[in-house]
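Session log. Operator J.P. requested a structure for one protein chain; no other inputs attached. Running the standard single-chain path with token output.
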Amino acid sequence: MIMTRFWILRRKNKGMGLDLQSLAVLRILTAMKWCILAIPVWWYTAPAIIKTFLGAYDFSEKIIVPFATSGGSGLGKTAETLREIVPMAIVMEGKLLNGKQKAEELKKWADSFEK
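Structure written below.
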């Protein structure tokens, strides 16, 4: 959701591409404690655009929970890679959402963030 917001801000204000210094994005990131991060998984890890996004901001003491949709591969080394990029953040093990989960499982997973 955050990626979508600053992509739209960038296109609206300056043309194509990501505006990683957008004030709106900075306000959102500063205010949050949890970052539920929807990511694609390429070759069992997060792609360069996610690494660029995470490297552009201070995620100190933020809790990052990655999740991905994939029909084939799992998350692989995604959490490990994210921990290297944002060592001051708490990176939780992610979840693969491939359409095979039951609603109860997803609710239990989402409810676990409150603890």
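Operator note: DSSP finds five helices and four strands in the chain.
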